[in-house]
Amino acid sequence: MGTRYAFVGLGHRARMYVNALLTDWSDAGEITGLCDVNQTRMNYYNRTIARSGRPEVPCFAPDRFEEMLDRADTVVVTTVDALHATYVCAALDADRNVVVEKPLTTDAAGCAAIADSAARSDGNLIVTFNYRYSPRNSAVRGLLAEGAVGEVTSVHFEWLLDTIHGADYFRRWHRDRSASGGLLVHKSSHHFDLVNWWLDSAAELVFAQADLRFYGEENAAARGLTGRPARGQGAPGLGSDPFLLDVSADPRLAELYLRAEHEDGYIRDRDVFGPGVTIDDNMAVLVRYANRAMLTYSLNAHAPYEGYRVSFNGTEGRIELNVCERAWTPPHAAIDPSAASKENAEGAWERLVLHRHWNKPEDIAIEGGAGAHGGGDRLLLDDVFRGPSDDPLARPAGYRDGIRSVLIGAAANRSAETGTPVRLTDDGTRLAD
Questions:
Q1: What is the pTM assigned to this prediction?
Q2: Mean pLDDT estimate for the chain
Q3: pLDDT value at residue 331
Q4: Band (39; pLDDT cuts 50, 70, 90)
Q5: Distances (CA, A) of 420 to 218, 275, 294, 389, 416
Q6: CB of 80 within 8 A of CB of 179?
Q7: Would you give the DSSP letter of residue 372?
């Protein structure tokens, strides 16, 4: 029969793992249970399971999660971020293996609870940092590991979210800091993990500034954007206002959210310029690492294009990675969610350059594969469902990696709130203050 997989949290994030177990990774095991607050969403995935020729599986409300554990060897956690620690700890305490989406959790308390559960559990915890597996990011890791620029002294990392991707965080549950930890945790944990992994070191000091400057009710009013609708569905401007999402235009989103609203009241298409936004959209972070490298990091969630730039200064040269994932944001993309994909987007490009002292710049070839993130998602799924390979790049991530990435974001949130630096322990797994 293979491994028995149970899922908790049946929103959009569950899709990649469910589909994997129903297709190319079906030999790894079978889905044996679904747990969510919303029966409509569980029904959607059960129909997906049935279409693959398999029988539908039992559904469990959250108060029956422990009952579902009796049917599982591994639990896949794709809930709202603030609930990750609850389910991760419960599964580990029952000695089950756990696969959890990033971020591992949202705050220092959740990190401490997971660390304690992991230390006493016979189960194994995998955090799915798929960006490690992207060929361009793996190429950077390889260059640094071989000492291409000597000892890294500083890193500059700028990430741009455009007004398709960035705006979406301000429509859905992520807009509530208590649910997501803000973008410095939910989104930036991806980026902080990359730097931790690239440098093979841990953060020891964090200072940050953050602000809400574009989205939200007050910013909209300051720019004269008044009388906004509460949501996209049924709004007079739907079809012409690029910031209004037509959740009914995507059959999958309609099934998972629009037709599920009557159960839990969750609205997937809130106006990005409405009330209730408690997260930031502009962030700047300064991090000092245990190996003395310094990171300057910025995140902007309302850019006109999507991509990132990262550079490494070393004692023997410099590495520059420039990535444009989407060259511009067509105004119809939010109206038609199917147009928002970044895969093979028009104008997308990437360039990795090695600058050695006293040498001409050298363009480094990036060998991509088929599928999302240049084939990186397939490599990740292989490690998740078939076991990690003997990977010289050390891409599989465990709970300590998840903790280290979350705590940089949590420390940055605290620093931005207090105006003071925040210190972490030597191994980066706890806040020292």
A1: 0.96
A2: 95
A3: 80
A4: very high
A5: 26, 29, 17, 42, 7
A6: yes
A7: G
